[in-house]
Design goal:
Elements lengths: L1 H23 L6 H11 L3 H26 L8 H17 L7 H9 L5 H35 L7 H27 L2 H8 L6 H10 L1 H17 L1 H28 L7 H25 L9 H12 L4 H25 L9 H6 L2
Helix pairs in contact: 1-14, 3-4, 3-6, 3-11, 3-14, 4-5, 4-14, 5-6, 6-7, 6-10, 6-11, 6-12, 7-10, 8-9, 10-11, 11-12, 11-14, 12-13, 13-14
Length: 357
Amino acid sequence: MKWTKQRLNNLFFVIGVLAVVIMLFTFDISFAELWQHLCHAGYWLIPIIGVWVFIYAINALSWQRIIKSKLGEGEHVSFWRIYRLTITGYALNYATPVGGLGGEPYRIIELSKNIDKEHATSSVILYAMMHFFAHFWLWFTSIFFYLILVAIGDLPLTPTVAVVFLIIGGFCLLAFYVFSKGYRNGVVVKIIKWIGKLPGLKKWSGRFLTNHEETLHHIDEQIAALHRQDKRAFYESLLLEYLARIVQSLEILFMLLLFGVDGGGGTSGLLITFVHSILILAFTSLFANIIGFLPMQLGVQEGGFVISIAALGLSAALGIFVSIICRVREIIWIFVGIMLMKIDVPRQQPSDLRQEP
């Protein structure tokens, strides 16, 4: 089993490296134009890239809160290990089609070296749900951020915008209901059954459910237990994930300030520009998640930035610049995450921990 896990680790590593190489050679602009954009960003690249140190730390704290609620007697996972798996997991999600096919399985495999496999699986699934749940809250609350800017006369409220907001609001409310059902009853068994409805996967789904029925139900029970038994951990994790999305808006804020977009200057102007940054992030992430089956959402993220920035009355050229710099930042952090896969730390197997007096 240990050799199998090592082979899987190497497979994920190779996939990540190949993805980075492919992405470097699939930019829609020439390397000369890319270099011009990087020179334009200048020293601003430091905070743009560096802010993700804090974003991933908040993500790790959110996941750690869930893991702690699942730990059995004698089990322990250090924050550094959670932080490392957070960065690497997102790197694999960015680099592979249908985000989550790489990052989540890798996290389960690695985390199961520290804690019980069922605990590892349920905590990874719970965190993935929490991460996506926070996106819905970002999209939902962004409607009210926009309305605040409308109230102060900064942005218009057209019939088209109103209809779009009604659709987004209804979509988010439906998602809140679906997530609440998942948190109360678990989702793993339902997902496996749903997979069985896909062409050619019915036999596999039935066989998998039969062979692992007890384990899958235990995982679902652990998912439901977080919301039922430890509501504080649940809401702390959700709040931290939402905070991470707000902090992520600083990346866009830095680029807007680089182009002289400051809302008229002063504290109020900076605050308005920050709210603009939140709206840009919300729309772009919504657009990217709707079409999330492409690696790094190639082309989708760029289009989302251009459209969202233009919708706020800013230059489309600014949208292109923001999308390019964000793409460079993603590649850098993917590379960091892939390299972290090869940084091993001393650890004990759960079986070893239980044997200690």
